[in-house]
Amino acid sequence: MIKKILERVTAKFSGRSRSIGLFAISSLLSRAVGIACQLLQVPIALHALGQEGFGLWMTLQSMLYLIAFADCGVGIGVQNRIAEAFGMKDYRGAHRLFNTAFVFLFAVASLLACLFVPAAWLLNVESIFGLKDAEVIAGASPAMAVVLGLFCLGFPFGLAQRLAYGMQCGWAHNISQALGNIAGLGLLILAAHYKLGLAMIILAAQLPTLLQNVVLIIYLARPLGWLKVGDFQFDFPQLKGLLGLGAMFGIQQILGSLVVALPAVVISSTLGAAAVTPYNLAQRLFNLFAVVQNAFMLPLWPAYSEANAKGEYGWMRRTLSRSVIATLLISISPMLVGGIFFEPIINLWIGNQPDHPVMPTPGLIMLLFLWNAVVFIQQPFGYLLAGVSHVKRLTFFSVASALLSVPLMFLLVKWHGAEGVVLALLVGYVPFNLLGSILETARFLKMHPLTDKKPG
Q1: Which of 179, 215, 276, 447 has the smallest CB count inside 10 Å?
Q2: How far is CA 279 from the centre of its chain?
Q3: What's the whole-model pTM score?
Q4: What pLDDT, in 10s, does the model give residues 311-361?
Q5: Distance of alpha carbon 346 from alpha carbon 341, whole angstroms
Q6: C-beta separation of 293 from 329 below 8 A
Q7: For the ranges 40-49, 70-79, 162-171, 324-333, which has the lowest average pLDDT?
Q8: How confident is the model over 248-276, as pLDDT tens digits?
Q9: Where are the domains of the chain?
């Protein structure tokens, strides 16, 4: 039903353009549903669990970011290679690739489960998290076991997203994600109504995410005949290639997460926790425009992988130009308007109070606008290079940028406050990630013909 509606909207497109359109529209819808469900979940869970119980849940969720990179970047590598295989109609190769990655991630998940789930029962969770409420203390270890257990169970099934993207079926993942968010909200409401306790409420809210990925894999793999146990194949040399490619993506992911998380830590540790609030409010405002860009950029990653396999370099050049123009018109221009009218927007959001202490300064707004604009401009070039697995130099640029930005943050925050932290991000990002990505994209395209390769 949902797919048919999306297909009517994109009926005037065909082939790859239609897949990209389906992906982009469904991505916007899925993100809207996700944001709405998250907004509704918070007051329900907070009322059911109390401030300490809810805080423990959010802390446990944050811990997962520290082990989320245990897949060694294999998931992203699978996405690229499957897109290339489907572009060349090598379905057996794609099947072997998926099986190999699934077995590897299942082994990693089993190892993590053996390490972390027993630890949930052995560790003194009460003292680690500073718990005081007797009811929360009683449910803390089971809750930790549930969070870690679901994460480990879902680790290999996270390939559902990569398979969908690689098959140019990103719309299927977006729809399943939206349905999973709605199901999670519904089960959370039921669990809270019947007062099932911390562990069961977490299970109710997060189990649909695991189930949506299992169902999505079955939905995508069944028409291909990939669910037959007798056709299972494992290719160790292919795994070595995935690990090599995945390591490059993994390093970039880790450094990207560091850049996102570190500014608040630097500001808080130097200026106090209260100084983080203006920075966070301004960045949250600009993040809304990143959601729009991601909606039309994410479909291009697997599309570039497929086009590269087919030798369609003319299409890649045209798409790159259009994505840069779209970024300027749809993301950066509206963000500029948001930056100009930031004060009334934030007052409307958090309440209009005279001399509000959390209002960002115009200087902070200007620097954060420049920072986000620079990141937005880099994305079209970065996505093309990632799609064609041309990532070794991108990894070098990320490392060089982090080595320059991180020390500068700690230095400039003392002189210029939060504005100094953003300035440090710009100084590290522009010469390496931005200019490096643009030059590397130009170098890659220069090595290939201006027009598409003729089939046959």
Answers
A1: 447
A2: 21
A3: 0.73
A4: 889 999 999 999 999 999 999 999 999 889 888 887 776 665 454 456 888
A5: 9
A6: no
A7: 70-79
A8: 777 777 777 777 777 877 887 788 756 77
A9: 17-239, 258-446
- H helices of 272-391, in order, are 276-297, 300-310, 313-326, 333-340, 342-350, 362-387
Tell me how far apart the alpha carbons of residues 434 and 35 are, in angstroms, rounded to a whole number.
30
Contacts of 410 (CB under 8 A, 6+ apart): 266, 270
Residue found under tokens 């057996």 = 92
Token pair 């221009």 is found at: 333
Token digits of residue 327: 């970024």
Give SS3 for 181: helix
Which tokens sit at 137? 């203390």
pLDDT confidence of residue 81: 84
Distances (CA, A) of 410 to 83, 254, 372, 451: 42, 20, 20, 48
Integer distance in angstroms from the first to the last C-alpha of the chain?
Answer: 38
Both tokens assigned to 185: 């909200």
**Nearest CA-CA partner of 364 in 316, 418, 313:** 418
The position carrying tokens 């299992």 is 214
The contacts of residue 289 (CB under 8 Å, 6+ apart) are 331, 332, 334, 335, 338, 372, 376
